[in-house]
Amino acid sequence: MIEVLAVRQQWCRRGESILWCHSTQLSCGFDVEGLDSRGKPKSEKLRSYNGGDRTAAHLGGVIGEYKAPMTPLGPVARTLDVDFSNALLPSAPVREGRIHGDEWVHDPTIRGWVLAESSNCDAVACANQLVAAGTEGWFIETDLRIAVVVEETVVSKSDIDEGEGKAAGLGGLLGKARSAVSTVAESLHGGDSLVTLWEYQCDQLADITEVRRGRWSESLYAIVGRFRDGSVIELKRDRDLPGI
Fold first, then answer.
1. Measured torsion, CA atoms of residues 38, 43, 47, 49, in degrees rounded to the nearest 10
2. pLDDT per residue over 180-225, tens digit each?
3. Which residues are CB-neighbours of 85 under 8 A, at least 6 positions away?
4. Would you place residue 32 in the very low, low, confident or very high pLDDT band (cuts 50, 70, 90)?
5. Distance CA 21, CA 4 (A)
């Protein structure tokens, strides 16, 4: 009854009669990008990553022509202070193109492979950041996006001062990955110490999956991202992620 009185007082116009008033327990759900059905931000879940291997500093591929190791073929998002002085070169067969299919996966200095018609393709944009970051770069796949991130310490201070590109939400996920494989003593928390060089929404990809690669009996797997422009990036997925 109190609901009827409230409607009559606060909503009805002068002389308007209430013919029916029914109380309901139904609630409205949200259908908004980035929010769950209750209107709260969706929590991001780590699916896979590539990074933490101090030997795998390079990428290769066929981008119009064979390239191994790759150099950046387009802009890099930030000025990075990365030391390549101790980076080993790929093996002679990889450098000279004397490999078949996915045999690049057996070279420990190669972290991934790119297939694209030109340097303007999306897979190359991703690879450019990984090439520039070397072993300091991390490729992260979550249920919402893929991204290339680096720690803030390798980014030029002038770029950091701009205050843009912080890897919001990815720090904790990367911390879990690092903790799981014991690559550092402590996990990262939050996103304040990571900077995003590149990211792409998963729902804009043609496909992203994990496939077995290589010619040996051991299980070697790669994260394979296929973009809608036809370009492909494959990155080694060297380790399982227990508990994530």
1. 150
2. 433 332 333 334 478 889 999 999 999 999 999 988 767 789 999 9
3. none
4. low
5. 7
Q: Which H/E stretch holds residue 152?
A: none
Helix (H) or strand (E) holding 174: helix 170-181
Residue 196: φ, ψ to 5°: -85, 125
Sheet containing 220-226, strands listed edge to edge, beginning at the edge strand earlier in sequence: 65-67, 58-63, 110-116, 232-237, 220-226, 207-213
Type of residue at 209: T
Strand partners, 138: 149
According to DSSP, residue 131 is labeled H
Phi, psi of 139 (to 5 degrees): -100, 125
Checking DSSP bridges between strand 110-116 and strand 58-63, what pairing results, if any? parallel
Measured CA angle at 194 (ends 190, 200), to 5 deg: 100
User: Distance between CA 41 and CA 27 in Å, rounded?
Assistant: 18
**Cα 6 to Cα 17: distance, rounded to the nearest angstrom:** 13
Q: How many other CB atoms are there within 10 angstroms of residue 107's CB atom?
A: 22
Amino acid at 169: G
| Residue closest to 177 by CA, chosen among 189, 166, 192, 187 | 187
Query: Which residues, including other chains, have CB under 8 Å from residue 181's CB and lie 6 or more apart?
Result: 52, 239, 241
Q: Dihedral sign for Cα 7, 9, 10, 16, please.
A: positive
Per-residue burial over 64-85, b = 16 or more CB atoms within 10 Å of its CB, e = otherwise: eeebbbbeebeeebbebeeeee
Q: Are 106 and 219 in contact (CB under 8 A)?
A: no
